[in-house]
């Protein structure tokens, strides 16, 4: 599996790795039940610290994308909606990046999402 | 190759004829030449047997020499089969002579001991192995196959972008073979003893360790190490590489077998046939690793190699001042 990262970017390297895996799940490049590269091998190939890779993997686990088992490494969660959830999370990431690019504050973004969900406007941008 | 194939048949023929000449006066006529278990049930005249055994040896030998092929894969197997055949047939013919020696009446006195029959099988296997070993180097072509593989191109890497590729390649047959040898070694502790059992078990574990490899490609170059233990590992830094390619490897034809192979001009970590990442060192020596998605790995290496040679650093210094927060990997 090919990983491309930007050490100069403001996005932490662990998050960049998580984003790459999430996109791979969303695109079907890795399927539910597939094993991800071992953290040691991945850190070795990129020339970065293994803990950086593990941070990315832990984030994916917290998102319910993968499971981490001692001795068996990281596996894409074998659930029917894993791919759809990866697509959704990928779009959230895009949304956040686009909103920041437009200069919106976090509260403004949340308000937009709440409005989109029909949950009223208790947090007003004005 | 023909001489190599003919040699064991010539040796077998000589042994048979010399033994026949030496034993001639002690052999009955007719000879017991076929055995049911250890007891004879078929007979042939003494001179007739000598002619027949010589004819059989020369005939099979001629057959193997004529059927010999120049195609590396088959040539080797044909030599191995020839050696195994001559071992089995030759020792069977010798056994017949020995079984008949000093018998007054073939039917009553000639016996074929069981160990002679087992010995014939073992000689066959042993000579097959000899055939395997003597053809080790001979059948390998000068260079790896698929020399002009399709151009893998390069990855479009942005300046400062770091890319790495990793993949694991495993061989289930090799893992099972290793397990079987280990179990056999453990089982032999009591009946045979430590001196045989322990090396066998260790050999089995070594085979298991060599049945799965992790391949990494990135700013540090190429790395190949067993997936279980971290050693032995193969490391080729980018500075020592001239080019990388993705090619189809034929284990028997290119490396004479599977596993961690070393041959003139190339090293191979060969767990299956098919696509392989092939890296050429500055010395011209080639490193082949059979691994899926090898084209991506080769393209990545080909885009990283020029970085080490010249102006662009392989890894940018940490803390570069890029403020492009929206950039995603």
From TrEMBL, chain A:
GO molecular function: DNA binding
Keywords: DNA-binding, Transcription, Transcription regulation
SMART domains from the UniProt entry: HTH_GNTR
Residues annotated as domain HTH gntR-type: 11-79
The organism's place on the tree of life at top rank: Bacteria
Pfam families found in the cross-reference section: GntR
UniProt name for this protein: DNA-binding transcriptional regulator YhcF (GntR family)
N-terminal signal peptide: none
